[in-house]
């Protein structure tokens, strides 16, 4: 199958830091279909040779274990081409259309690795140039909009040009191998399904923690914040995969229908519940790995007195028969104690303990990063008698050891799926809009607090797990975050 993969924003940070290395890995693994061309478009004047040299220099900044040899890169570079293009000029779109038609690839994938505010104008111009034929797909990077209204407007324009199956809204967390194993865990094994409900599960925790700060992206991050950057998309997508009902088939729409049902079942927020169940924080100066780091307000390009949140913790519930009464705790933040993304399923304790220490409940830990695996935490007797005390033990599955061959990364998988037209791991527009609909009352409540009372996020020291009130949020239900148990 021949294909053209076009990157708008071909010299941008996302393209060279994430997308090109992922494509190289697909090429190295022999997964990239033969007969492909990778075409980068951007405003600067460059030749193909200049662009290949630019990517070669950028590759020197990626993970050393994934860097190509000179011979490998030379073969990969044959696929790379460059075209100067001004995204505001209709004639440049017509020229791109002529270039693509001349080659006549079976599939054309247009990847918009640009600022989301450009998505509408790019899609409108693509439509006018005829670059919306059935064999064309467009990939839209997050964040898709700033709020519900902007997301709906972007989707309105995109749908006026492309069909729903042509528009692929990407969330790279869905491409992580551990997330794929979450689906396998639930729907390919009979072991957990009888337990996957309120009668057996006490609470579920989703943590997406980063030890890094905002770096040089302070201006971008200050317009976004942790709620928009991580909760509205990544965390909610993980929640839907944990809580969804088994789909009737493996078809993309069957899966996305069930995820949408979960989003619609989330308890809606009110001003009162936002005050009670949502906590925001902002990191102050502290220590990470023994090194002092600045507070958020001292980072580059962050405006003085910013109220942008770098930490969010919240409590919600899925209001349906399977999950009624089970708290779901979501937490994300920058400059936290560790880089750690995981889902912790806390099971209920046994109803009548006969062993000392049997009040400790079992846990299933789904590790997303930096480790990739599953850990089942159990209790075992130290001796053989009924009166013996129990000790915690773990069944720990490391997927990198279980599958010793090099595994497919998130962007690598998603790029290959975009070329092949596999839609399962892409977010449908109604899912995305429902997620915005759910978080918007939080944004509105914070806006009112700022305008009426000047209230902002709580401070927390870099290198900790966020504001102390985050522990109180969970303790109110008699629970604790996983690192505190």
Automatic annotation (TrEMBL):
Family: Belongs to the glucose-6-phosphate dehydrogenase family.
A matching Pfam family: G6PD_N
Keywords: Carbohydrate metabolism, Glucose metabolism, NADP, Oxidoreductase
Domain Glucose-6-phosphate dehydrogenase NAD-binding: 6-181
Keyword 4Fe-4S included in the entry's annotation: no
Protein name as it appears in the record: Glucose-6-phosphate 1-dehydrogenase
Keyword Transmembrane: no
Record's function text: Catalyzes the oxidation of glucose 6-phosphate to 6-phosphogluconolactone.
SUPFAM superfamilies: Glyceraldehyde-3-phosphate dehydrogenase-like, C-terminal domain, NAD(P)-binding Rossmann-fold domains
Species annotation: Sphaerotilus microaerophilus
Boundaries of every Glucose-6-phosphate dehydrogenase C-terminal domain copy: 184-481
Residues given in the record as NADP(+) binding sites: 43, 86-87, 142
Catalytic activity: D-glucose 6-phosphate + NADP(+) = 6-phospho-D-glucono-1,5-lactone + NADPH + H(+)
InterPro entries in the cross-refs: G6P_DH, G6P_DH_C, G6P_DH_NAD-bd, NAD(P)-bd_dom_sf
Transmembrane segments: none
Organism superkingdom: Bacteria
Residue numbers annotated as active site: 234
Protein residues bound to substrate: 172, 176, 210, 229, 334
Pathway(s) annotated for this protein in UniProt: Carbohydrate degradation; pentose phosphate pathway; D-ribulose 5-phosphate from D-glucose 6-phosphate (oxidative stage): step 1/3
EC code(s) of this entry: 1.1.1.49
């Amino acid at each position: 199958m021949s294909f053209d993969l076009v990157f708008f924003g071909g010299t941008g940070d996302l393209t060279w830091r994430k997308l090109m290395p992922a494509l190289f890995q697909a090429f190295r693994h022999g997964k990239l279909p033969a007969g492909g061309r990778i075409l980068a478009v951007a405003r600067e004047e460059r030749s193909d040779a200049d662009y290949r040299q630019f990517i070669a220099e950028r590759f020197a900044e990626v993970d050393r274990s994934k860097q190509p040899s000179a011979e490998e890169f030379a073969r990969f570079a044959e696929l790379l081409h460059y075209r100067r293009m001004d995204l505001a000029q209709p004639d440049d779109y017509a020229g791109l259309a002529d270039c693509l038609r001349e080659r006549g690839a079976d599939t054309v994938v247009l990847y918009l690795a640009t600022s989301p505010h450009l998505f509408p104008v790019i899609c409108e111009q693509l439509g006018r140039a005829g670059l919306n034929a059935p064999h064309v797909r467009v990939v839209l990077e997050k964040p898709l909009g700033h709020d519900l209204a902007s997301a709906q407007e972007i989707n309105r324009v995109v749908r006026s040009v492309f069909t729903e199956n042509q528009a692929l809204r990407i969330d790279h967390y869905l491409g992580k191998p551990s997330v794929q194993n979450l689906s396998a865990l639930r729907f390919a094994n009979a072991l957990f399904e009888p337990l996957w409900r309120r009668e057996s599960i006490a609470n579920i925790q989703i943590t997406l923690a980063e030890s890094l700060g905002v770096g040089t992206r302070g201006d971008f991050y200050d317009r976004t914040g942790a709620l928009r950057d991580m909760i509205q998309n990544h965390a909610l997508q993980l929640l839907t995969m944990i809580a969804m009902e088994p789909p009737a088939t493996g078809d993309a729409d069957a899966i996305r229908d069930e995820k949408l049902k979960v989003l619609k079942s989330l308890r809606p927020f009110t001003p009162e519940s936002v005050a009670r169940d949502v906590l925001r924080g902002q990191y102050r100066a502290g220590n990470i790995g023994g090194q002092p780091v600045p507070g958020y307000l001292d980072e580059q390009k962050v405006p003085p007195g910013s109220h942008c949140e770098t930490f969010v913790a919240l409590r919600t519930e899925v209001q349906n028969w399977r999950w009624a009464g089970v708290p779901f705790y979501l937490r994300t933040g920058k400059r936290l104690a560790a880089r750690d993304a995981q889902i912790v399923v806390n099971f209920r304790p046994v109803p009548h303990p006969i062993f000392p220490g049997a009040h400790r409940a079992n846990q299933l830990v789904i590790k997303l990063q930096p480790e990739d695996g599953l850990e089942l935490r159990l209790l075992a007797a130290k001796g053989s008698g009924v009166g013996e005390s129990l000790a915690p033990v773990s069944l720990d599955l490391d997927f990198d050891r279980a599958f010793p061959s090099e595994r497919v990364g998130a962007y690598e998988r998603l790029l290959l799926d975009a070329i092949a037209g596999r839609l399962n791991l892409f977010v449908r527009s109604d899912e995305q809009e429902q997620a915005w609909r759910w978080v918007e009352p939080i944004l509105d409540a914070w806006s009112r607090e700022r305008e009426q009372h000047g209230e902002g996020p709580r401070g927390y020291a870099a290198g900790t797990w966020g504001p102390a009130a985050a522990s109180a949020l969970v303790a109110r239900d008699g629970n604790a975050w996983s690192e505190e148990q």
